Amino acid sequence: MTWKNGFPAILPKPLLKVANGTLFYGKVDQGEEGFILAYVFRRKISKLSVEMAKTQTNLKTPSKDIKICLIGDKNVGKTCLALRFVRDEFKSELMSTIAASFFTKMLTVDGHEVNLHIWDTAGEERYHSMAPIYYRGAAAAIIVYDITSKTSFLGAKRWMEELQKHGPENIVLVIAGNKNDLEDKREVLEQTGRDFANETGAIFRECSALNAFNVTSIFEVIGQKLLSSKDHRVLIDDSSLKVADRSQTNNGDSKKRQCPC
Predict the structure, then answer these.
(1) For the chain, which terminal residue's Cβ has fewer other Cβ atoms within 10 angstroms, N or C?
(2) From edge to edge, which strands make up the β-sheet containing 112-121?
(3) Rounded CA gap, 235 and 200, in Å?
(4) How far apart (Å, rounded) are the C-alpha atoms in residues 191 and 197?
(5) What is the domain range of residue 215?
(6) Which of the four pLDDT bands, split at 50, 70 and 90, describes residue 29?
(7) Does the predicted TM-score (pTM) go above 0.85?
(8) CB 240 within 8 A of CB 137
(9) Is 141 inside a domain boundary?
(10) From CA 233, how far away is CA 160, in angstroms rounded?
(11) Pick from 159, 152, 172: which is nearest to 220 by CA?
């Protein structure tokens, strides 16, 4: 072996040299679990040692669980939004949600994997009292209204009031005006929705489950907001997960309706 300045000549230029004379040579081999094998040399010491050096960039970051609730009056298109985001599909005929439906989807946000647990709550008045069961422990809530219905916008205001009074502390709130593909039938101006969001400190998006406009953006901005927050309120409350199995079975009792999303 040829040596140069006390080190094997075949080695590349060291990536790091520290004050005590230690030279770190990287990247030699990729080991399991993201470890990097790096040759470590110390001046005036001929013995070659091999150490395992962890690098943060090559370690897979564990995914974070985010519980999100879709809330709003009936027929505003909550289920259509969930299906568009999770399965990238649109169905004009869906079953009315009984109590709640449940979806999951992995999403990469700014290099971080987040596991979204999406609760699609029923909008009918008779299920209103059950809503707290589903938004309990939620990190975010998407309040959906239909831009072609002033009544649904008033309903969104009522939902906002309820969440501000009884929802989890620091919950991320999004106001979503769905069906913006139906511009000729619009009853709620975009600026009206935006002003309402500004007044309440919520994020605002107009969207369309029909053509997928802004649907993914809604969930991405939630992930970004939560990942950037100091308390990282993204872990699901275990007590809220216990509802999952019971609520999912309720969907079999659904009745068919039109979903003009």
Answers:
(1) N
(2) 100-109, 112-121, 64-71, 140-146, 172-178, 203-206
(3) 24
(4) 10
(5) 64-229
(6) very low
(7) no
(8) yes
(9) yes
(10) 20
(11) 172
The DSSP secondary-structure symbol of 237 reads P
Instruction: Compute the distance between CA of residue 132 and CA of residue 134 in angstroms, rounded to an integer.
Output: 5
30: its two tokens: 């990729």
Q: Is residue 167 part of a domain?
A: yes
Weakest-pLDDT range from 46-55, 61-70, 104-113, 136-145: 46-55
Range ranked top by mean pLDDT from 32-36, 173-177, 224-228: 173-177
Total number of residues shown for the chain: 261
Closest to 101 (Cα-Cα) out of 73, 134, 125:
134
- For residue 260, tell me if it sits in a domain: no
Q: How many domains does the chain have?
A: 1
Q: Amino acid identity, residue 115?
A: N
Structure token digits, residue 90 = 């649109």
Close Cβ partners of 232 (under 8 Å, ≥ 6 residues apart): 64, 226
Residue 96 is assigned to a structural domain of this protein: yes
Reply yes or no on whether the pLDDT at 189 is more than 70.
yes
The answer to whether 206 and 193 have CB atoms below 8 angstroms apart is yes
CATH of the domain at 98: 3.40.50.300
Residues 120 and 144: their CA atoms lie apart, in Å, by 11
